Amino acid sequence: MLTTRDFEEQMQPSFQLEEELGQIYHISQRRCPRLKRLVMPSWEKIDKQTICSAFHEWKDLESLTMPSLQKPTYVIEKIGRSCKKISELKIMTPYDILFAYALVSFLTNLNVLSVRCTELSKPATAIL
């Protein structure tokens, strides 16, 4: 039987991971403002404000590998508005029509789109 104490012990690493990832983003946006390439870890543990403020500082970002997201269109919009030089995107998130419209609308300088490990729909692919 799972007690409250057991549950808290099991959940503790998750909370620590969330806090550590948030700290990593805050440190990296201050210490690496000219970041060009970035491979993101899981984003589910980081709040949207932390992610968006980090992208706001990474104006020279050219290449991004991003894992699955809950609201990818919102993040793509923030990336497009903040990182004007981004030309390469590798995604591992479901690719639907809204996501396709966000890519076309906000990442106009995109030259490479890698969709390995991505669930694609025909209508969304036709938009590109």
Summarize the SSE layout with pairings:
Blueprint lengths: L3 H28 L5 E3 L8 H10 L5 E4 L5 H11 L5 E4 L5 H10 L5 E3 L7 H6 L1
Parallel strand pairs: 1-2, 2-3, 3-4
Overall description:
The chain starts with a helix and ends with a helix. By secondary structure, it is an alpha/beta fold. Strands 1-2-3-4 form a four-stranded parallel beta sheet, with no helix packed on it. The longest helix is centred in the N-terminal third of the chain and has 28 residues, at 4-31. The protein has one domain. It has five helices and four strands; from the N terminus they run αβαβαβαβα.
Key phrases:
128 residues, alpha/beta, four-stranded parallel sheet, 5 helices, 4 strands, 11% strand, disordered N terminus, LRR_dom_sf
Radius of gyration: 16 Å
Poorly predicted ranges: 1-18
**Averaged pLDDT, please?**
76
- Considering DSSP H and I runs of 4 or more, what fraction of the residues is helical? 40-55%
Distance between the termini: 52 Å
Shape: globular
Helices and strands, in N-to-C order?
HEHEHEHEH
Main beta sheet strand tally, sense and closure? 4 strands, parallel
Short description:
InterPro entries: LRR_dom_sf. The chain is 51% helix and 11% strand.
